From TrEMBL:
Residues 1-24 form the signal peptide. PANTHER family: TETRATRICOPEPTIDE REPEAT PROTEIN 6, UDP-N-ACETYLGLUCOSAMINE--PEPTIDE N-ACETYLGLUCOSAMINYLTRANSFERASE SPINDLY-RELATED. TPR repeats lie at residues 99-132, 133-166. It comes from Hyphococcus lacteus. This is Tetratricopeptide repeat protein. Keywords: Repeat, Signal, TPR repeat.
């Protein structure tokens, strides 16, 4: 009897939490100011601004989604990729406009050699949050690995529009620019 009550209560909680919509992290009004400061500010504050942006991106404004996201991230960091993907699938179902869940699921899929799934998730993350410079840099690397130098260069440039202080993206873009100079573009 007690087990049945626990199962019913768990089912009730899932129903209640599923009915509570999660807000999209990318709509937070603080982001516009942070991105403007990141784009025109100096490198000294850039790291702090990037951290604040990522902190906002990872806040779904739903306790349930936030908890699942933290667990998915921890699972991925500990190599439990199947568990991470399962949790991320649930998050996407609960909060289909939470861009960061697609970004993380794309990263996990990439580690599992599911390039098509990763690209699909990264594309969805960019639809929801076009300023997602981390996703753009990752997509640039995927494009480069596939031999699409011009497209990779363009993607690095898009990432740099939002975070001009990313030295790695800037160096990769510079290197690609030298490689494609003289070639038909």
């Amino acid at each position: 009897m007690r087990m049945r009550l626990c199962a019913l209560f768990s089912s009730f909680l899932l129903t209640v939490f599923a009915a509570v919509p999660a807000f999209a992290d990318q709509t937070d009004p603080r982001l516009d100011h942070l991105f403007e400061e990141l784009r025109v500010g100096d490198a000294i504050r850039a790291e702090e601004n990037v951290s604040r942006i990522i902190e906002i991106w990872t806040d779904a404004q739903s306790d349930t989604v936030d908890l699942l996201y933290v667990r998915a991230e921890l699972s991925a960091n500990n190599g439990a990729f199947d568990l991470s993907l399962t949790l991320l699938d649930h998050i996407v179902g609960l909060a289909p406009n939470f861009a960061q869940s697609y970004a993380l699921r794309g990263s996990v899929r990439l580690t599992q050699n599911d390039r098509a799934g990763a690209i699909e998730d990264f594309s969805r993350a960019l639809e929801l949050e076009p300023r997602q410079f981390v996703v753009r840099t990752t997509l640039a690397e995927i494009l480069l690995a596939g031999g699409a130098k011009r497209e990779a260069y363009d993607m690095f440039q898009k990432a740099l529009e939002w975070n001009p202080h990313d030295e790695n993206a800037r160096d990769r873009a510079r290197q690609l620019r030298r490689e494609i100079d003289g070639q038909e573009i």
